Amino acid sequence: MSTKAEENYLKTIFKLSEKDSVSTNAISEELQTKPSSVSDMLKKLSEKKLINYVKYQGVSLTPLGHRLAVHVIRKHRLWEVFLVSH
Fold it and tell me: What are the C-alpha distances in Å from 29 to residues 25, 36, 61, 65, 81?
């Protein structure tokens, strides 16, 4: 089970991961939070096997993390379509 904060991090990593890996600073800037807070969350996501995280080398989604990120993005897009049409 993922929290909203974890889902937001996964979405952000997915969005920024058009390159090979994403830096902590890039995530921090995108989410407008402190790099130390990002590092803490990345450790949690790594423990849940949702990301591959090596300190000072960036982060990438695992296959499980990628599936979860895509699921969250789809869910949010469906809500957006529903809200716009109703």
Answer: 6, 12, 18, 21, 28
**Residue 9 above 70 pLDDT?**
yes
**Residue 10: Cβ-neighbour burial (10 angstroms; 0-12, 13-18, 19+):** buried
Binned at pLDDT 50, 70 and 90, residue 50 comes out as: very high
pTM of structure: 0.84
Query: Alpha-carbon distance 18 to 86, whole Å?
Result: 33
Is 11 within 8 Å of 69 (Cβ atoms)? yes
